Amino acid sequence: MTAIENRLADSFDAVLHLLDRQIVDADGKMAGNVDDLELADLGEGIEITALLTGASAFLHRIGGRVGERLVRGYGELQPAEPNRTRPWRIPLDKVQYVDSAVHLGVDRDGVLELGPERLRLGDLAGMRMTGERGKVIDARFEPVDGRFLLRALVVGRGGPGSYLGYERRDDQGPWVVAKLIRAWHRHTRVIDVSEVSIDWSAGEVNPRQENR
Amino acid sequence: MKKYLQVALGILTAIGGFVDIGDLVTNAQVGARFGLSLVWATLLGTVGICVFAEMSGRVAAVSGRATFDLVRERLGPRFGLTNLVASMLVTFLTFIAEIGGVALSLELVASVQEVLIAPLIALLVWLVLWRAKFNIIENAFGLMGLALIVFAVALWQLGPDWGGLVHQAATLAKPHDELWSTYAYYAVALFGAAMTPYEVFFFSSGGVEERWTDEDIGVMRANVFIGFPLGALLSVSIAGVAWVLLGPLGVSVDDLGQVGLPIAVALGKIGVAVAIVGFVAATFGAACETGLSVGYSISQYIGAQWGKYVRPPQAMFFHVVVALATLVAAGVLVTGVDPIMVTELSVVFSAVALPLTYFPILVVANDPDYMGEHTNGRVANGLGVVTLVFVLIAAVAAIPLLIWTGMGR
């Protein structure tokens, strides 16, 4: 058994396996952190379109009213600069593979670009799940012909220990820690994306009518 | 042959680099008041730092990720940030203490007030961090730090009642004129001094600097499991000589001169000269390590390029953080704050901050995604969980004990 060689070769949980990872360029130089992921519905459901990085994306990740205020404040530091509150993006086709870091196939110099405002994984993670005592803690994507499509949501109580990985795999020790964290997160479950509809403006996930 | 030399060099550096201002001051203070009755706390701290450093070194070697990469990946940006701020406050406090420690050591020679020397030392530290190669920073001061072996020589020269010392250490015999509360407070301080968080930030980032791979795990383990315990023996010698000489006099240690006093009695002027070389090397080396650790950790959290393995223009953010930290540290020291007091606070708050980075490393060292076949085995996890328990106890007890005992007075 070796450490993971390319996370993107198989389905993965985007928050656990991609978010907050180091971005490294073709030369091994560090180019920022994956502060958020850009998502969009391009006809086949929601898919990942770009990595988001930089101050604006990071401050938005802090979340809630504080996060919003911080992003606004960051823009106000330099009002003359256009699009300052827009996040910098790295299109997904520049990513070569993902192990413990996200490896780009290009040099870091000038790799960032601005694009239209789209959806963000950081907003999806943390959404309330209507009719359940839980929230979205992660999103599972599957590679299909070089694109990464949203297949399922991981729903649980959230809070401390959601991103340590214990409730997603059962061969991770130490025993005592694994036991405690699994007990705390025992209601975590995976819901297929076809069973829900995501209301981005209200920040909640609703079960589809036919499943009620 | 070259490989053996490398292992030997690594071990010697680990011994000389183990002791810093926190160990010097805390061990002398504890030695003078409690003798070797608290040696168990140093022992626990040493086991703890071995376990912690081995795990973080192994994670760095296999996955190429250093401490604060992992903290953010496992705890998310918000809790990760709280974690970063707390850990950096403690590391910065230690940074101030180390620079102050170099200044205090030189004050012993030059009789120029430490407040006047400190800014100069800060400038020197910054120059070294900007210009010098990583392996020079790591090896030169570690090797010079071996001069602290004079403390072991002095203990032997003083010819103490060995049976009595061993008895005191083995029975945890608290001297009758001390309270249990201060005894507990100094246990936490010794634990924090041996297990200062920056050591691990530096150790894991250093592994990435030196491009360790899983083939380097063996050498890394030799350094940790042989070097650190031998370094801890120097700590115990410092406590030992303080007890033998200062204990009966009822002297409480509140400057660096008193730490070296037993050497003067046992070995005379030459001994003192060697000890001062040791003080300067240990504190200057640790000042470099803490300064780098501040830059490493903040850069790792935001994902900016860090490290001495690239030229400074390629890691500008990192070097700006290091320069600012050094400038502010110098600013704090010129206010005339007592570096010994800063040291005392830094070791106690080290104990408070430890779980914040210890726990995520323990988790990642078990994660096959990062580690493949190099995940923790039974021994590493057994020791890892035991250490976690002690780390948590020390962290919870530290601040109440600090307040209750009025910093151990």
Describe the fold and architecture:
The complex is a heterodimer of chains A (212) and B (409). Chain A has 212 residues and is α+β, with helices and mostly antiparallel strands. Chain A contains 5 helices and 15 strands. The longest helix of chain A has 13 residues, at 64-76. Chain A is globular, with a radius of gyration of 18 Å. Chain A starts with 11 loop residues before the first strand and ends in a 5-residue tail after the last strand. Chain B is globular, with a radius of gyration of 20 Å. Classes of the chains: A alpha+beta (212), B mainly alpha (409). At the A-B interface, β3, α2 and α5 of A face α4, α12, α15 and α16 of B.
Q: What gross morphology of chain B would you assign?
A: globular
Q: Report, as a whole number of angstroms, the end-to-end distance of chain A.
A: 43 Å
Largest sheet of chain B: none
Please tally the helical runs of chain A, counting DSSP H or I stretches of 4 or more residues: 5
Which percent range fits the helix content of chain A? 10-25%
Q: What integer value in Å does the Rg of chain A equal?
A: 18 Å
Determine the number of helices of chain B (DSSP H or I, runs of at least 4 residues): 16
Give the end-to-end Cα distance of chain B, rounded to a whole number of Å: 52 Å
Give the biggest beta sheet of chain A.
Answer: 4 strands, antiparallel
Query: Could you name the ranges of chain B where pLDDT drops below 50 across 5 or more consecutive residues?
Result: none
Q: SSE string of chain B, helix = H, strand = E?
A: HHHHHHHHHHHHHHHH
Strand content of chain A: 25-35%
Report low-confidence residues of chain A grouped into runs of 5 or more: none
Structural class assignment of chain B:
mainly alpha
Helical fraction of chain B: over 70%
Number of strands of chain A: 15
Radius of gyration of chain B: 20 Å
- Let me know the average pLDDT of chain B: 94
